[in-house]
Amino acid sequence: MAVAFIVCAVYLIAAFFTDLRSMRIPNVLTVSAMLSGLIYHSIVNGWEGLFFSLKGLGAGFLILLLMYFIGAVGAGDVKLFGGIGALTGLWFTVQGIMYSVLFAGVIGLFILLWRREALKRLRKLAGSIVGVFIFKSGLTWRNHQEEHLRFPFMIAVLPGVISTYLVLHG
Question: GO:BP terms for this protein (predicted)?
Fold first, then answer.
């Protein structure tokens, strides 16, 4: 299993730098991580290893796919967590997502405070929520999606995955 975590660490470092540089994570990186996780666990543990890897890949991919549909992450992030899941399995991946989302929230809050936009955005959010309940329509909510705060998610994923590793294996 140590080999899978080393491969995952190299994968995350490469994804971190490409995401910082271009706000994209290339398919060659994500697909190779998925395949290497599936192949490695299949060779080491046979069918049980394959299922371990498939469960992690599926969980990482599907949870991030839901986040993609609401506009919280990009498509590369979806495939990124599929690769993390294939290498590290279901529970590590789910916890990695949880910690990454927590880090993203803290980072987003710091960015808003730094830009002095926090109160303005909170007022818009409150107005959107009121609009949803009063007008029974998500239109006011959807109108503000183009104003979402954007930053490379890898800035939150890297400390999220490191935290997961330290909690589970530290």
Answer: signal peptide processing
